[in-house]
């Protein structure tokens, strides 16, 4: 099976712009989670989707949003970008319903976002 | 929010030596997972240990869980240069919720 893919791999934006990141989970996986990784804050949970429904949400401002499509592919959007949004954004998929904490998460390579 | 805290933050050893990393957490958990991340890449799942388990093995990896002390340890035996990476523990605040990751231990194995 192909692994989790994320596009684009690298992105440079300027403050105030918006950005959309895409994640394609492993075939058959219905749960997709998103994480932001920065040197200062480490790995922080953004949100989790299962069967097109947001199941869990982390403590991020409303500028961060996401969605999941019927084929389980997921997108996350960040509007009005700030310098502090520069980070590695990771998506992970898993096969089970029980939530990311129950199951092995398969991570994609990440999208490196730089905000200038 | 609840978070696992790894200790030490950084560890440098020689090839062939064992590496031990510890993780402490604050509240009761259902599961604890360990992940590895090579520089700037995605995470790779290593082991999931449930709260009713005390020890699990996978190849050169051994994970223990002590729920009374709210701590876990990851032991890598006979380390190799390829084990150089950051290692994270991840816990859940309650069943079916998101994973919360610690800040990680950076392991450097030199030949």
If you had to describe this structure to a student in words, what would you say it looks like?
The complex is a heterodimer of chains A (116) and B (111). Chain A has 116 residues and is mainly beta. Chain A has no helices and eleven strands. Chain A has strands at 5-7, 10-13, 19-24, 31-38, 42-50, 53-57, 64-68, 74-78, 87-94, 106-107, 111-115. Chain B is mostly beta strands and 111 residues long. The relative contact order of chain B is 0.35. The mean pLDDT of chain B is 91. The chains are: A mainly beta (116), B mainly beta (111). Chains A and B meet through strand 5, strand 9 and strand 10 of A and strand 4, strand 5, strand 9 and strand 10 of B.
Question: Topology, pairings included?
Answer:
The complex is a heterodimer of chains A (116) and B (111).
Chain A: E1 5-7, E2 10-13, E3 19-24, E4 31-38, E5 42-50, E6 53-57, E7 64-68, E8 74-78, E9 87-94, E10 106-107, E11 111-115
Parallel strand pairs in A: 2-11
Antiparallel strand pairs in A: 1-3, 3-8, 4-5, 4-9, 5-6, 7-8, 9-10, 9-11
Chain B: E1 5-7, E2 10-14, E3 19-24, E4 31-37, E5 43-50, E6 55-58, E7 61-66, E8 71-76, E9 85-92, E10 99-101, E11 105-110
Parallel strand pairs in B: 2-11
Antiparallel strand pairs in B: 1-3, 3-8, 4-5, 4-9, 6-7, 7-8, 9-10, 9-11
Low-confidence stretches of chain A: none
**Radius of gyration of chain B, rounded?**
13 Å
Count every helix of chain A, treating DSSP H or I runs of 4 or more residues as helices. Answer: 0
Count every beta strand of chain B, where a strand is a DSSP E run of 2 or more residues: 11
What is the largest interface, and how many residues per chain?
A-B, 28 and 26 residues
Secondary-structure content class of chain A:
mainly beta
| Element-level helix/strand string of chain A | EEEEEEEEEEE
Task: Kindly estimate the percentage of residues of chain A that lie in beta strands according to DSSP.
Answer: over 45%
Give the termini separation of chain B. Answer: 39 Å
Q: Helix amount of chain A, in percent?
A: under 10%
Global mean pLDDT of chain B: 91
Describe the sheet with the most strands of chain A.
7 strands, mixed
Chain-averaged pLDDT of chain A: 92
């Amino acid at each position: 099976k192909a692994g989790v893919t994320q596009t684009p791999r690298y992105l440079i934006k300027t403050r105030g712009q918006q950005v959309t990141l895409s994640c394609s989970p492993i075939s058959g996986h219905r749960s997709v989670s998103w994480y932001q990784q920065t040197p200062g804050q480490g790995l922080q949970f953004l949100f989790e989707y299962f069967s097109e429904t947001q199941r869990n949400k982390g403590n991020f401002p409303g500028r961060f949003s996401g969605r999941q499509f019927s084929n389980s592919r997921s997108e996350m959007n960040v509007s009005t970008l700030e310098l502090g949004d520069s980070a590695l954004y990771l998506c992970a998929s898993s096969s089970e319903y029980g939530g990311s904490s129950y199951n092995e998460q398969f991570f994609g390579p990440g999208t490196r976002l730089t905000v200038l | 929010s609840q978070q696992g805290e790894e200790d030490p933050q950084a560890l440098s050893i020689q090839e062939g030596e064992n590496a031990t990393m510890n993780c402490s957490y604050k509240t009761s958990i259902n599961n604890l997972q360990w992940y590895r991340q090579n520089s700037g890449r995605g995470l790779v799942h290593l082991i999931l240990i449930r709260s009713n388990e005390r020890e699990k093995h996978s190849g050169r990896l051994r994970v223990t869980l002590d729920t009374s002390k709210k701590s876990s340890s990851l032991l890598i035996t006979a380390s190799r240069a390829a084990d150089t990476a950051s290692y994270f523990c991840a816990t859940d605040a309650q069943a079916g919720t998101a994973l919360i990751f610690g800040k990680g231990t950076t392991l450097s194995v030199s030949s």
